[in-house]
Specification:
12% strand, 30% helix, transmembrane, nine-stranded mixed β-sheet, Pyrimidine-specific ribonucleoside hydrolase riha, hydrolase activity, hydrolyzing N-glycosyl compounds, single chain
C-alpha cells in the first residue's frame, strides 16, 4: 500500500509540474492586439481591412467588422461585400455586424440594437428618417453610393462567394457584435466611417468602455497649420470645414471624442500628404502577387478610369489604409504614449467635434435636441455647445454667406481651449520614404505593397478560381415561328413584390406578353445597385436578351440645383432602412445570393442611362 501511495504521489507531482510549466508558457505567450473595425465600406475602407487582415495574427487579430450604415454605402450591399472579403482570406471567424431595428425614444431612452441607419439627431423609434447629413453624398454614379455598393462592378467579377450572407432575423446587428467583442476583454477600435455605431454603444453601455484600449479615427480636418479645409465637395458653399466621416453624424463624433478613451486622429491634414500618386499606382500595377493585391489594384484602376480621370492622382488619397498603417505601427510598441510610428508625424492637440453653430440657445426649428422640448433630449445643457443652429441640408440659408465662405461648422474637428477641449494625438503629415533611391516617396507606400503581397495568410482564391467551370454565357430564348404577343415594358422599383411580378411576366406565354425591356426606378424600395439582382434573375430565366435601364436616382425636383449628383430625400425618407425595408429589398431577403450569377452586371461605363 505504501508503494502504491508513493506511486500516485509521484504521478500527481509530475502532473502538477507539467501543468505549471504549460501555464507558465501560456502566460508568456504574446497576446495579440484584438481589433474591431467600424467601416462604411468605401474603396479605401476595404484597402484598410485587407491591410489589417494581412498582419501577423500572433500580433494583431481582427475580431470583428461593424458597418456604418448611414454614410458611403448601403447596408444590404455592404454586408455581403464584407462577408466575401474575409472568406477570400480564410477568415470566416471575423464577426460581421450591420443594422438593427432598435430606436431612441422621445425621452432619450436608447433601445437595444439601434441600427445606425440615421444620425443620432434624426434617430426616432424606427429605421426611417431624414438624410440631413447624408444628402451630401451622391447616391448614384460618379463615385457615389451606387458605384461603392458594387465596387464599380469589380466585386461580383472578382471576389469569391462564401457561405455567410445577410439573412433576415439572423444577421447579427452592429450593437450585438460590439457588445460581444468589447465585453470579452481589451480591444482596439478603428473607425473609418461615421461614428454612430460606437457612439450608440458608449451611450448605452458606459460600463464597457473600460475595455476599449484605444480608438483610432480616420476623419476630421484640424487645419491648424496649413488651413486645410474639409472635403465636402458637394457642400463647400455652406460648410467648408467638415470632413465626410465626422459630418455624417457630428453628435456621435462628439460622444466618441468626449468618451474619455484615448484617441488617435488621422485627419485630412495628414492623409492629404499621401495621395495615390502615379508612381505608387504604376508600382502597384507591377506588384500584384496575391489575390488581395489584385482586388485592391483593380478597384483603384477602375476608379481611376471611370470617375476621376486625370484628377485621380491628386484627389484620391490613402485615407483609411494610411490610418490603419499608423494604428498598427503605433501598437507595435508597448506604452507608446507619444504615438511613435513609421508612417506619420504626430503631435497632441486639444480638439472637439462641433455639433451646432453659434449663437447657442437659439430655437429656430433646426435642432431636434432642443426645439419644442421643455427638457432637452439626452438631458443636454440648455445654452450649451449642442444648442445652436444645426445644419439642415446642403443649401441651408443660415450657412450661406453672400459672396463669402460658408459659415456652418457642423462636423468640424476644431482646436479649442477650455472644458470642451479633448487632448488627442493627431497625425499631421505622412513621413517620407527612408530609402532615397526608391521611386516611392512615402514610407507607408512600401509597407502597404509589401503587406498585401507577402505570402503568409494570403487569399485562397478569387471567383474564377473558386468556380473554374463557370463560363460567362448569355442565354437568349429562341421563339422560332411563334407569334409574339403584346409588347410590354416593365417599370419596377425592385421591391420583393416587383420581383414576383417580374417572374410572373417572364412565365406568361410569349404569345400573350412579349417583355421587351425593364426600367428600374431607384427612388423607392431598393437602392440602385440592386439592379444586379434583375440581371441574375433574367439569367436564371434564360432571358439575357432583355435590356435593363436604370432610371433617375432622384424623384422629381429632388436633385440639387447646383450639383445634380446630390439632392434631397423628401419622399424616400418614409421607407425603412432596416427590416422589411431597404436592407431586405437590396438582398431580396437573402435570396439574391442563391441566384446564378449573370455575366451582365452594373458597370459604370456600360450601363444604360435610361431605356427610351
Amino acid at each position: 500500500m505504501v508503494v502504491h501511495g508513493n506511486f500516485w504521489v509521484v504521478v500527481l507531482l509530475i502532473i502538477g509540474v507539467v501543468a505549471a510549466y504549460n501555464l507558465y508558457n501560456v502566460e508568456c505567450l504574446p497576446i495579440p492586439h484584438r481589433i474591431l473595425l467600424d467601416t462604411d465600406v468605401d474603396t479605401d475602407d476595404f484597402l484598410a481591412l485587407l491591410y489589417l487582415l494581412k498582419q501577423n495574427r500572433s500580433e494583431f487579430k481582427v475580431e470583428a467588422v461593424t458597418i456604418s450604415a448611414n454614410s458611403w454605402s448601403d447596408a444590404g450591399h455592404a454586408v455581403n461585400h464584407i462577408y466575401d472579403i474575409p472568406y477570400m482570406m480564410d477568415r470566416d471567424d471575423v464577426a460581421v455586424g450591420v443594422g438593427g431595428d432598435g430606436g431612441i425614444l422621445e425621452d432619450g431612452t436608447i433601445l437595444p440594437n439601434v441600427g445606425g441607419y440615421l444620425p443620432i439627431i434624426e434617430q426616432g423609434n424606427t429605421t426611417a428618417g431624414y438624410c440631413r447629413y447624408r444628402q451630401a453624398i451622391p447616391p448614384g454614379r460618379g463615385g457615389g453610393r451606387l458605384d461603392i455598393d458594387v465596387n464599380f462592378g469589380i466585386q461580383r467579377a472578382f471576389l469569391p462567394q462564401g457561405i455567410r450572407k445577410y439573412t433576415p432575423l439572423q444577421q447579427p446587428t452592429s450593437q450585438q457584435v460590439m457588445i460581444d467583442k468589447i465585453s470579452w476583454g481589451p480591444i482596439t477600435v478603428i473607425i473609418t466611417g461615421s461614428h454612430t455605431n460606437l457612439a450608440i454603444f458608449l451611450m448605452k453601455n458606459p460600463h464597457l468602455k473600460r475595455n476599449i484600449k484605444h480608438i483610432y479615427i480616420m476623419g476630421g480636418s484640424v487645419g491648424s497649420k496649413n488651413g486645410d479645409p474639409g472635403n465636402l465637395f458637394s457642400d463647400s458653399t455652406s460648410n467648408p470645414y467638415a470632413e465626410f466621416n465626422i459630418f455624417a453624424d457630428p453628435f456621435a463624433s462628439y460622444q466618441v471624442f468626449h468618451s474619455g478613451i484615448p484617441i488617435t486622429l488621422i485627419p485630412l491634414d495628414a492623409t492629404n500628404t499621401i495621395p495615390v500618386s502615379k508612381n505608387f499606382f504604376d508600382t502597384f500595377e507591377k506588384s500584384q502577387n496575391a489575390y488581395e493585391a489584385q482586388y485592391c489594384f483593380q478597384s483603384l484602376k477602375t476608379d481611376r478610369y471611370t470617375t476621376l480621370g486625370h484628377l485621380f492622382y491628386t484627389n484620391f488619397y490613402m485615407w483609411d489604409a494610411f490610418a490603419a498603417g499608423v494604428a498598427i505601427s503605433i501598437m507595435h510598441k508597448s506604452n507608446n504614449t507619444n504615438g511613435e510610428n513609421e508612417f506619420a508625424e504626430m503631435e497632441y492637440m486639444n480638439i472637439t467635434a462641433v455639433t451646432s453653430n453659434k449663437p447657442y440657445g437659439v430655437h429656430d426649428g433646426s435642432n431636434p435636441f432642443f426645439d419644442g422640448r421643455d427638457v432637452p433630449r439626452f438631458n443636454l445643457t440648455k445654452g450649451g455647445v449642442h444648442s445652436g443652429h444645426v445644419q439642415t441640408g446642403l443649401r441651408d440659408p443660415f450657412c450661406i454667406v453672400k459672396n463669402g465662405t460658408g459659415k456652418c461648422q457642423d462636423g468640424y474637428t476644431a482646436e479649442v481651449t477650455g472644458p470642451e477641449a479633448v487632448h488627442v494625438l493627431v497625425a499631421t503629415e505622412a513621413k517620407p520614404n527612408q530609402n532615397n533611391d526608391s521611386t516611392l516617396d512615402k514610407q507607408f507606400y512600401i509597407s502597404f505593397l509589401d503587406t498585401l503581397n507577402r505570402p503568409p495568410d494570403t487569399g485562397r482564391f478569387n471567383f474564377t478560381t473558386q468556380f473554374p467551370y463557370y463560363k460567362e454565357v448569355l442565354y437568349k430564348p429562341d421563339f422560332g415561328s411563334k407569334k409574339l404577343g403584346k409588347t410590354v415594358v416593365f417599370d419596377m422599383d425592385m421591391s420583393a413584390g416587383d420581383f414576383l411580378a417580374l417572374v410572373y411576366l417572364l412565365k406568361v406565354p410569349v404569345e400573350v406578353i412579349n417583355l421587351k425591356a425593364i426600367i428600374v426606378s431607384p427612388t423607392g424600395w431598393a437602392n440602385a445597385a440592386t439592379i444586379d439582382i434583375i440581371y441574375d434573375l433574367l439569367h436564371m430565366m434564360g432571358c439575357d436578351d432583355i435590356p435593363v435601364g436604370l432610371g433617375d436616382i432622384f424623384a422629381m425636383n429632388q436633385s440639387d440645383s447646383i450639383l445634380s449628383s446630390v439632392g434631397d430625400c423628401k419622399y424616400i425618407k418614409a421607407i425603412p432602412r432596416g427590416s422589411g425595408g431597404l436592407i431586405d429589398s437590396d438582398t431580396l431577403y437573402s435570396l439574391a445570393r442563391d441566384l446564378p450569377r449573370s455575366p451582365r452586371r452594373y458597370l459604370k461605363l456600360c450601363s444604360f442611362k435610361k431605356y427610351t
